[in-house]
């Protein structure tokens, strides 16, 4: 490994725009040696993992959800047929060469048949009351997750070879092997004999390894594979190709003409975005890149000429400013009030233990003498279970939850004097009541807690006050 190469991840929506992907990313006018010294980690085609597991937004069950529910003996089989048809349809839309399409379809049929046979075996065991297959369900989830990335990586390799590119399909999914090596060991083995100067590896975003990628990283597993590949191969740069620029706010909320590309920021900001659920990069993936000083670039797959946004560890904006306004449209504020809490230790630990047991994501927290509040990215039902759990240990405590929204102003340095008063004035002028606010000493973010119904307008007014108005003021200063 020379360290002259890049490691690049392609998201599912970008994968689905195959023609654009080849024109703007995979080929993008390159020829000869310029095609190489790149490694691509690919996600499943957009919507495919939803069919295999469950819909990420609506929760509608896919093959996994239907198998777990077991509400219809043929339900999961029907769902598996839906996956097969969707993959064949994707192949039909991509391949001009009939031989390559036939090879791609045969690959899909082989993988789906093998996994369907495993599920059949488990279903037969489950039909006998004395067998419990609950412990095997996570393995089923892992196997299904890998099918989507195997399909996209294999098809992409074939499409590249049809264009005379020496692409190699790198299958990390462990679909036929039973050894559970670490992710690092699996990557090192796969790349030990690859010459990056003459080979273009197309790598599955899912990797079968000890601990399970889905179990450990949920749907963020592709980014972990991407990050470890960059670290272990000593990449000069890590690049994520998405269907949009990393912008100062959601263009759909503030207007395409108002949102601007961030351009430069640091890993501290990337961590804040990940904490709020924005799909910039998984926090675990960012950690590895940051610790090894590998810069991360986020590019728009549909904007071939633009360099995107560069994320580094040491960047700080020349002038204190807000780089992005974003947040969570609906979350739960869990409030724990206990009059006897003053000066007594242990309450915070007990709450954190309960949240950990129920696997709830903590976005932020605050406390005073007798109240601890956790802002959680979780459903109301999940939080009710935590409250019931805590109430058993603390029967005299007043424990409640309410739905709220969080809007955050984030930047590598937001220490501009008057920023918070300007934000509060903008919210007040718009008739938006602030429920709570947090401003950290590191001057990376300010979090405003508002009613859920005010989320969209809060993003718009804060973006106008903290980004757009500041841009106009900077232009006036330059003009003067």
**CATH classification, class level of the largest domain:** Alpha Beta
Strand order of the largest sheet: 3-4-2-1-5-7-8-6
Beta-strand fraction estimate: 15-25%
* Global shape: globular
What is the CATH third-level topology name of the largest domain? Answer: Carbamate kinase
Largest sheet, in brief, is:
8 strands, mixed
Number of strands: 14
Q: How many angstroms separate the termini?
A: 51 Å
- Oligomerization state of this entry? single chain
Tally of helical runs = 17
Count of discrete structural domains: 2
CATH superfamily of the largest domain: Acetylglutamate kinase-like
Low-confidence stretches: none
Mean pLDDT: 90
The helicity comes to 40-55%
Derived from helix and strand composition plus strand pairing, the structural class reads: alpha/beta
List descriptors.
480 residues; alpha/beta; Carbamate kinase; 2 domains; eight-stranded mixed β-sheet; six-stranded antiparallel β-sheet; 17 helices
Q: Could you explain the architecture of this structure?
A:
It is a single chain. The chain has helices at 12-16, 18-26, 48-52, 63-69, 75-94, 98-127, 137-162, 183-191, 213-217, 221-233, 251-254, 267-275, 283-291, 347-357, 380-393, 419-429, 455-479, and strands at 6-10, 38-42, 167-170, 200-204, 237-242, 264-266, 296-300, 309-312, 324-337, 361-367, 371-377, 398-410, 434-439, 445-450. It contains 17 helices and 14 strands. The chain starts with 5 loop residues before the first strand and ends with a helix. With 480 residues, it is an alpha/beta fold. The model has no long low-confidence stretch (mean pLDDT 90). The protein has two domains: 6-243, Carbamate kinase (3-Layer(aba) Sandwich), CATH 3.40.1160.10; 324-479, VC0802-like (2-Layer Sandwich). The chain is 44% helix and 19% strand. The chain is globular, with a radius of gyration of 24 Å. Strand 13 (434-439) and strand 14 (445-450) form a beta hairpin. The strands form two sheets. An eight-stranded mixed beta sheet has the order 3-4-2-1-5-7-8-6, sandwiched between helices.
């Amino acid at each position: 490994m020379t360290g002259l190469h890049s490691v690049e991840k392609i998201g599912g929506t970008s994968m689905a725009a195959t023609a654009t992907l080849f024109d703007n990313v995979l080929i993008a006018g390159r020829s000869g040696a310029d095609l190489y010294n790149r490694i691509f980690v690919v996600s499943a085609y957009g919507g495919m993992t939803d069919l295999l597991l469950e819909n990420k937004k609506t929760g509608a069950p896919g093959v996994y959800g239907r198998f777990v529910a077991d509400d219809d003996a043929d339900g999961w089989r029907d769902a598996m047929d839906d996956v097969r048809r969707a993959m064949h349809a994707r192949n039909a839309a991509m391949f001009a060469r009939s031989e390559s399409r036939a090879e791609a379809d045969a690959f899909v049929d082989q993988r789906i048949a093998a996994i369907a046979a495993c599920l059949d075996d488990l279903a037969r065991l489950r039909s006998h009351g004395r067998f419990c297959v609950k412990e095997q369900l996570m393995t089923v989830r892992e196997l299904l997750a890998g099918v989507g990335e195997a399909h996209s990586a294999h098809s992409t390799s074939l499409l590249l070879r049809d264009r005379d590119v020496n692409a190699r399909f790198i299958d990390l999914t462990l679909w036929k092997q039973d050894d559970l090596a670490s992710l690092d060991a699996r990557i090192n083995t796969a790349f030990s004999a690859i010459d990056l100067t003459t080979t273009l590896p197309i790598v599955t975003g899912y990797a079968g390894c000890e601990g399970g990628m889905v179990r450990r990283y949920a749907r963020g597993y592709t980014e972990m594979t991407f990050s470890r590949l960059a670290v272990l191969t000593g990449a000069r740069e890590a690049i994520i190709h998405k269907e949009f620029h990393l912008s100062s706010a959601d263009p759909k909320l503030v207007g395409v003409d108002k949102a601007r590309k961030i351009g430069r920021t640091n890993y501290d900001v990337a961590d804040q975005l990940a904490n709020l659920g924005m799909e910039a990069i998984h926090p675990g993936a960012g950690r590895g890149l940051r610790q090894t000083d590998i810069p991360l670039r986020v590019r728009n797959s549909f904007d071939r000429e633009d360099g995107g946004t560069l994320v580094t560890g040491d960047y700080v904006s020349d002038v204190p400013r807000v780089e992005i306004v974003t947040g969570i449209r609906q979350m739960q504020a869990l409030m724990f009030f206990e009059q006897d809490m003053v000066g007594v230790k242990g309450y915070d630990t007990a709450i954190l233990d309960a949240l950990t047991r129920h696997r709830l994501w903590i976005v932020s927290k605050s406390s005073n003498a007798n109240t601890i509040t956790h802002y959680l990215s979780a459903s109301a039902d999940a939080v009710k279970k935590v409250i019931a759990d805590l109430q058993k240990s603390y029967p005299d405590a007043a424990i409640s939850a309410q739905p709220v929204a969080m809007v955050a102003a984030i930047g590598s340095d937001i220490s501009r004097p008057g920023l918070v008063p300007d934000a509060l004035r903008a919210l007040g002028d718009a008739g938006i009541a602030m429920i709570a606010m947090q401003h950290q000493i590191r001057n990376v973010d300010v979090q405003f807690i508002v009613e859920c119904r005010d989320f969209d307008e809060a993003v718009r007014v804060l973006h106008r006050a903290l980004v757009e108005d500041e841009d106009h003021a900077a232009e006036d200063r330059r003009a003067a």
